[in-house]
Each structure stands twice: as structure tokens, then as C-alpha cells.
TrEMBL record:
Domain of life: Eukaryota
GO MF entries: UDP-glucosyltransferase activity
Chain segments carrying region Disordered: 1-33
The entry's keywords: Transferase
PANTHER family: F11M15.8 PROTEIN (PTHR48047:SF28), GLYCOSYLTRANSFERASE (PTHR48047)
Compositional bias (Low complexity): 15-27
Family: Belongs to the UDP-glycosyltransferase family.
UniProt name for this protein: Flavonol 3-O-glucosyltransferase UGT89B1
InterPro entries, A to Z: UDP_glucos_trans
Keyword Protease: no
Compositionally biased intervals (Polar residues): 1-10
Length: 453
């Protein structure tokens, strides 16, 4: 964040001009999102992720570990040199919570560091506890209880954050894991923390973190994708064609009658899992869109799977298999979509909430078990139909759960739509997230003014 003079800020939600039927909401504001802050940022980039690495990275810690180690060792020198030679150096560092080492870099530069959390406040509260001073006392395989957190949640060992499980299972003293642990601890020392969430969704956990960190600089500014409008701004002929075809297919169905199935941009299902899911969808009788990623020859050889041969013919008319990129936000926003079978990644959770769509959870790793617990146990706006990255569901049981959820469960549907209204309200002018974003910028401006005197 570079230095800038006093400015004003307005935020809201842009209108949806799609010709396809979208979910309506009386809570949607009329104003368009706009920022009057000058765009004076200077990006510093690392090489982009190569899609061909996915097969190597699936289930592997080593490539991530190598990148993290090199970044934390080498990046500070270049950034310090750039900072000192810049005519208008940054007033603060805003960095991802995985980059805890940037807290110490900010100290060296004499500027505040702001930790940005792309996961939720509930997950962060649990992660903060696990990575604390007594992290080494947590025994692998043990049940994890968090009596000091709102609702006193508990997790099985398999549901614990993946990175922490690897840390404990690797044994004490692994230098790379100790560096990660130090980075997690540094997050709690940052001047401020910013979350892609909103008060009505996670207010009790945001307040817990404010008390834990000992300061009020814990800002909720989400759902961030709503600040740029309710649908993706994808461009290109392929993007527009796929989006138009999928949404036109949805137009023929009744409100809240279609299930959207997608497990994110990274997770691949094993062949047995994909076959069980396909059979469950077929037996359930529900209408659905299943977004699948095309597999490479190597991924097929490694045992990953997709929609089985003949499946599309057997479900023709009520099921659509979308191969490749899917316009997820547009699909979820369509009036016909009433359920989302998801891995419960945080972005997917927020996109479902913003669309008022009930989550049917199949959490697999990372923060996903905690995200599912938030929606299912705390908010009552979803149901868990399976869990585990290696679990092969029973097709008959899965079919029954999908059918019952899509053909009934009105309480969960109503609560999902109530959360949507609260999310829309949060990003309106005067809403909790809009106000927090304003407050963050104003506080940074005050810090910069004091420093320049």
C-alpha cells in the first residue's frame, strides 16, 4: 500500500445486467462499487503457478516447502533494496497470513504489517490455538478440543488443518516446519488483521480474535467478490460461450431445483470417488450441474477419475457435466440453483452464501472441515453429506442425502437466504464490511500522516 493523501471511499454492489434469471434480493443496493483512492500500488510478483505441476503437487508438501523457504530467505533483501530506493515507498505491508515473515520485514522498514486472511475467522481462531506455544504438546491422532472458543468446538485429528497435522507428524525440530510455526506466531503480532468475512457470519470469532490479539485492529471486509458485483467479470469468447450455454440450460428449470457440484480448482477425485459420486447423482433423481476438470494422461495413470463413460447419456435432460472452467458465481446466482455440493473451501463458502444457496458439504482437507462446521453447526445453513479426502461414499447413502436435501430441508434453505441478505447488507454503504474497509484506510492514512510530520 503506497502513500496517498486524504481521500474518500464509497462501496456497494454493481447491477447485474445478465439476460439470465438471477436470484432477486430486496437487500441489493442501487449504488455501484467505486473507490476514489488513487491506484498507486506497485506490484512485485513471483513466477505464476504452472498448471502442469498439479500432478506433482497433489498430496505433496515438498514443492510448497521449497518455495516457502526460498521466498522467506531471499525476498526480504530485494524488497528492502527496492524500498530504500523508491521515491514513494510503501506506508504499510499487506500480506497473506502464510507470509508471516513479512511482519519482521515490516519492522525493519519501520512500517506496519497487515495480515490478510483468505480463510475465515473461525478457522483462524482454531489455527492460532494449534500453532501456539504448546503446539508440540498436541499428540498426533488425538481429539482436539477448543473450550475457550465460542461454542466450544472440537475436531478429530483427521479434521485438523492439514499443515498443522504434517508439522506434528514430521516430528520436533524440522527446520522448515519451525519456520512456518514462527510465521504463524508472527501473524498475531501484526498491527492489523483483515478477513474476507463479515460480522453477521463470524462476529463472535472476530471478537474472540480482537481479545486474543489485544487490539481492535481486526477488520472484516467481505465477501470481497461482492464489491466488484455479484458475477464474474470473465472475458474472452470461450468464457462467454460456456457461461451462456450453462445459464441457458438452467433457465428451463424451476427455482431452487438444481444442485451444483464442484470441488474447487485444485482438488481431484480418485477414480473410485468419481464413480461413487456419479452413481449417487444418478440414483438421487436430482437435477444437477457437475463441474469436472479434464485429466491429463499422468493423472489418469495416477488413479484420478472423472465422470464415467456413459454417465452423461444416462442423466441426459436432468444432469449437465461441465468439462473445464465453470462460471461458478453465475451458476450459484441463478434462480434455479438451490444446493451446492462442495469441498467447503472458503471462497466457495462465501460465494454460496452471497447467492443464498444451501451448502452440502464434503470437506476434504485444510480449512474445509472448520468451514463446514461453521455453516452446518453454527449457522444451520447447510448439511454434511460426506467427509474425507480419501473417502469413497456409499452411492445409495449419498443419493438419499442429496435427494432429501434438495427436495426438503426448508429450514436450511431459509437460513441460507437469510445469510445472503446479511452478506449483501454488509457490503452496502454503511454496512459492517464497508465501514471496516473505510476504517482500515483511515487508520493507515493517520499513521502515514504522523510518520510524515
Amino acid at each position: 500500500m503506497t502513500r496517498a493523501g486524504n481521500s474518500s471511499f464509497r462501496s456497494g454492489i454493481g447491477h447485474n445486467n445478465s439476460n439470465h434469471s438471477q436470484k432477486s434480493s430486496n437487500s441489493e443496493p442501487d449504488s455501484c462499487c467505486q473507490s476514489l483512492y488513487p491506484n498507486t500500488g506497485s506490484p512485485v510478483s513471483i513466477p505464476p503457478f504452472n498448471p502442469s505441476w498439479r500432478g506433482e503437487l497433489e498430496g505433496s508438501w515438498k514443492p510448497w516447502q521449497h518455495t516457502y523457504d526460498k521466498c522467506s530467505e531471499q525476498a526480504p533483501r530485494g524488497i528492502i533494496h527496492w524500498f530504500k530506493s523508491h521515491s514513494n515507498p510503501p506506508a504499510a505491508i499487506l500480506s497473506d497470513f502464510f507470509l508471516g515473515w513479512t511482519h519482521h520485514l515490516a519492522d525493519q522498514l519501520g512500517i506496519p504489517r497487515i495480515a490478510f486472511y483468505c480463510s475465515g475467522a473461525f478457522y483462524t481462531a482454531i489455527s492460532d490455538r494449534l500453532w501456539g506455544d504448546d503446539a508440540q504438546s498436541v499428540k498426533p491422532g488425538s481429539k482436539l478440543e477448543f473450550q475457550d472458543l465460542p461454542g466450544a468446538p472440537s475436531l478429530t485429528w483427521e479434521q485438523a488443518p492439514s499443515l498443522f497435522r504434517r508439522y506434528r507428524e514430521a516430528g520436533v525440530g524440522d527446520p522448515s516446519f519451525e519456520a512456518v510455526k514462527a510465521g504463524m506466531a508472527a501473524n498475531g503480532l501484526s498491527w492489523a488483521s483483515v478477513f474476507n468475512t463479515f460480522e453477521a457470519l463470524e462476529g463472535q470469532f472476530l471478537e474472540h480474535l480482537r481479545k486474543k490479539m489485544g487490539h481492535p485492529h481486526v477488520f472484516s471486509v467481505g465477501p470481497l467478490h461482492l464489491f466488484s458485483g455479484p458475477n464474474e467479470s470473465g472475458s474472452g469468447e470461450v468464457t462467454l460461450r460456456v457461461s451462456s450455454e450453462v445459464l441457458s440450460w438452467l433457465d428451463q428449470f424451476d427455482d431452487d431445483s438444481v444442485l451444483y457440484v464442484c470441488f474447487g480448482s485444485q482438488k481431484l477425485l480418485k477414480k473410485a470417488q468419481a464413480e461413487a459420486l456419479a452413481l449417487g447423482l444418478e440414483k438421487s433423481g436430482v437435477r444437477f450441474i457437475w463441474a469436472v476438470r479434464p485429466l491429463t494422461a499422468q493423472q489418469v495413470a495416477d488413479g484420478y477419475g472423472s465422470a464415467p463413460d456413459g454417465f452423461e447419456d444416462r442423466v441426459a435432460g436432468r444432469g449437465l457435466v461441465n468439462k473445464g472452467w465453470a462460471p461458478q458465481v453465475s451458476i450459484l446466482s441463478h434462480r434455479a440453483v438451490g444446493g451446492f455440493l462442495s469441498h467447503c473451501g472458503w471462497n466457495s463458502i462465501l460465494e454460496a452464501i452471497a447467492a443464498g444457496v444451501m451448502i452440502l458439504g464434503w470437506p476434504m482437507e485444510a480449512d474445509q472441515y472448520v468451514d463446514a462446521k461453521l455453516l452446518v453447526d453454527y449457522k444451520g445453513a447447510g448439511a454434511q453429506v460426506c467427509d474425507g479426502g480419501d473417502t469413497v461414499p456409499d452411492p445409495n447413502e449419498l443419493a438419499q442425502k442429496l435427494s432429501e436435501s434438495m427436495h426438503g430441508d426448508m429450514v436450511k434453505r431459509i437460513r441460507a437466504k437469510e445469510l445472503r441478505n446479511k452478506a449483501l447488507e454488509a457490503v452496502r454503504i454503511g454496512g459492517s464490511s464497508s465501514n471496516d474497509l473505510d476504517n482500515l484506510v483511515q487508520e493507515l492514512d493517520q499513521l502515514n500522516t504522523l510518520k510524515s510530520k
